[in-house]
Write a structure and sequence with these properties.
- This protein is mostly helical.
- Helices cover about 60% and strands about 0% of the residues.
- The chain is built from 12 helices and no strands.
- Helix 1 packs across helix 12.
- The two termini are about 15 Å apart.
- The structure holds a DNA duplex (13 and 12 nucleotides).
Length: about 220
DNA sequence: CACCAGGGTGGTT
DNA sequence: AACCACCATGGT
């Protein structure tokens, strides 16, 4: 059985240090997690810099912005009409809770369910926020992880086997390693699949685990 | 020009 | 549970 450390070392040797998440505060991580949905990081970063210039990377300030004005600021990140009100709801949630420090006291599962209750935060974004904003040991369950771990374990189909492997990873790797793992999985998935053919079954190139392995690893 | 990016939601089968 | 259409800009 592949150990967590082996998987992380293997990926690290190939792709080098990733150093996620680029942000100056935990709240900025949350905002970035929302903005980067279905968008490249460079576009999300542009939106974040607009917010920084307007001093809106704080919950107390962000919750008071008009949705229309916010939408214009975050336009480069795409889906700005839906992301604007969602960001305001997020800022309102954090501010009402008394700030990020107050939320950081909660246990991981409690925090997760609170995050999932917010509009625009699903499983994957909640995982990313728990890992990169609150330093919780979490394996982000995204399409890339499902594909790569699915191939490693040889299990295809329901995401339960992936969940099981993820729980093993969590048991045997620290937060710093898991932090690097998600970034490495994303880097590896992009790299390996760039040259891969489009899957005949689901007509996807990147986020698919049907296609045959394209190199010695996945 | 087609395809894709560090998804979520609401609806249907 | 799996699948679908929709949201929308910028890069390659």
């Amino acid at each position: 059985m592949l150990e967590a450390r082996d998987l992380i070392d293997l990926l690290a040797r190939r792709h080098g240090p990733q150093q996620w998440w680029p942000a100056e505060s935990p709240f900025e991580v949350m905002v970035g997690a929302m903005l980067v949905q279905r968008t490249t990081w460079t576009n999300a970063a542009r939106a974040i810099e607009h917010l920084r210039a307007q001093r809106l990377l704080e919950a107390a300030a962000l919750r008071r912005v008009r949705p229309e004005a916010l939408a214009e600021l975050i336009r480069p990140a795409g889906f700005y009409r839906q992301k604007a009100p969602r960001l305001i709801a997020l800022a309102e949630f954090v501010d009402r809770a008394g700030g990020m420090e107050r939320l950081a006291v909660l246990d991981t599962e409690g925090l997760r369910s609170l995050l999932l209750d917010l509009p625009g935060i699903g499983e994957e974004t909640a995982d990313a926020i728990l890992l990169y904003a609150f330093d919780r040991p979490v394996v982000v369950d995204d399409a890339y992880a499902r594909r790569i771990i699915g191939r490693i374990t040889g299990v295809r189909g329901d995401g339960q086997a992936v969940r099981a492997f993820a729980s093993l990873l969590v048991e045997d790797a620290d937060v710093v390693a898991l932090n690097e793992l998600h970034a490495l999985i994303v880097a590896h998935a992009k790299d390996v699949c760039r040259a891969a053919p489009i899957c005949q079954r689901c007509s996807l190139r990147h986020a698919c685990r049907h296609a045959a392995p394209t190199d010695s690893f996945v």
